[in-house]
Specification:
homodimer; 161 residues; mainly alpha; Arc Repressor Mutant, subunit A; 2 strands; DNA-binding
Amino acid sequence: MTRPKEILIPVTPYAEGDPDIGDIKNIVGFHIRLAHGAVYRNFTETFSDLELTQKQASVLWLVDDHPDIAQIGLARRMQMDRATTMAIINRLQKRGFLVRGKSKTDGRKQTLNLTNDGRQALASAKVAMQKHEKWLQSRFSKKEAEMLIEMLSRFNTEKPV
Amino acid sequence: MTRPKEILIPVTPYAEGDPDIGDIKNIVGFHIRLAHGAVYRNFTETFSDLELTQKQASVLWLVDDHPDIAQIGLARRMQMDRATTMAIINRLQKRGFLVRGKSKTDGRKQTLNLTNDGRQALASAKVAMQKHEKWLQSRFSKKEAEMLIEMLSRFNTEKPV
DNA sequence: TGTAGATAGTTAGTCTAGCAAACAATATTT
DNA sequence: AAATATTGTTTGCTAGACTAACTATCTACA
């Protein structure tokens, strides 16, 4: 492991002055991206043994929480389009973690359910997730974590009223 | 534009109880990913005329802020590896937005600088960024936005002390 | 009822991005 | 002087996001 001599923290907490964007340090989007990258890297490291990505683990989790869910339901919950969802489901199916079935109520839809292997993978994933979340949440008090989640969820609303 | 009949907001603000991860709704990583996705999509929409990605716009901005910066400097600031940085620089160079030069102080390094086209693209990007940030920050008070940035930046520290 | 439009899944193709591994050239350290 | 580190580069692989087209099915309404 080589440590860079100069550790550049590309951010300052915030800047004084008016909110216009003279400085990249004040761009919320920039910070979301950096944070996402850091979280992604830690996730990948934590899950390297399991060989599951964030998306894949989330899909396993959601399918387990919602048996017989259709791809479109997954897509909505994870805010992905159908094509992307297909690709992810295909990968998980190829590894034998879930199976597609026929919906009894809607001929267009299929049902998704975990296999035993899938359930086992999810169980391992939840253990790893605990470690990952610990890494994340160690940076925040419980109250702060709640606040962070609440603030992040505001991005997923259609439009602020 | 077809609107889904059922709009699924995949989150609840937070859940009561202890912080262990029985529920995907309490996973910070999950929310970061969703938020990042939403921000990314709005960015892409806002920047569709300019045909610039988040990364590309950020690189233009940083090169403008730091003339003669080397690729490795950019990589550190944006937390990318060298290979990824290469690819992004190559794309921007191919479009004539920046040029590579020779560093006078270190034979291994190259200098990056914007061309006139690059400066022009950045100027347009900053205008679009203003719109994008407005979309983002409309969800937050000024104080909340500052808090959010501060909290997000905690992910980019090595380890919490 | 019958038809037009919406929805769900699928496939193919394109693009960005991340990363590992290797290599050459240059700097730094010992 | 030799060993090690750093920087840029190339190649190859992977995941993921998106568009466009197509089929099958369902829904709505004239």
